[in-house]
Design brief:
Elements: E1 2-6, H1 10-22, E2 26-30, H2 33-42, E3 47-50, H3 59-67, E4 77-81, H4 86-93, E5 97-99, H5 104-114
Parallel strand pairs: 1-2, 1-3, 3-4, 4-5
Helix pairs in contact: 2-3
């Protein structure tokens, strides 16, 4: 599973990236919405962790553009933001939100719930 981490704070993005890679996920990072959109179009992620307050293109701007791209519209997004108004802003976008500092085990549990499950293979024998 590929997680695109979009955060303009390099330390925060690096921490999340290393944490999720330790837990078996692949990650890529972007520092603003414009960079994230380019990366996502080139290599669509399975999940996006999105900060809202960023230079160049905000999280809201990214989300609007994401929804307009057929190859990205269905990619789940979790907001992870340090802004005091993050939950209200994320709610307007229809997104769940975690406010920093969020315990990484709680964020991991949320990501794992969104992880695609392998299809079950039924072995049916006829006699």
């Amino acid at each position: 599973m590929l997680i695109l981490i979009v955060d303009d704070h390099a330390d925060s993005g690096l921490l999340m990236s290393e944490f999720f890679e330790y837990h078996g996920f692949r990650t890529s990072r972007a520092e603003n919405g414009e960079q994230a959109l380019r990366q996502a179009l080139a290599n669509p992620p399975d999940l996006i962790l999105l900060d809202l307050e960023m230079p160049v293109m905000s999280g809201e701007g990214f989300r609007q553009r994401q929804l307009g791209e057929p190859s990205l519209a269905d990619v789940p997004v979790l907001c992870v933001s340090g802004r005091y108004d993050a939950r209200d802003r994320a709610e307007r976008l229809g997104l769940p939100c975690f406010v920093k500092p969020v315990p990484l085990d709680i964020l991991l549990a949320a990501v794992q719930r969104l992880q695609p499950r392998p299809a079950k293979v039924l072995d049916i024998h006829t006699s």
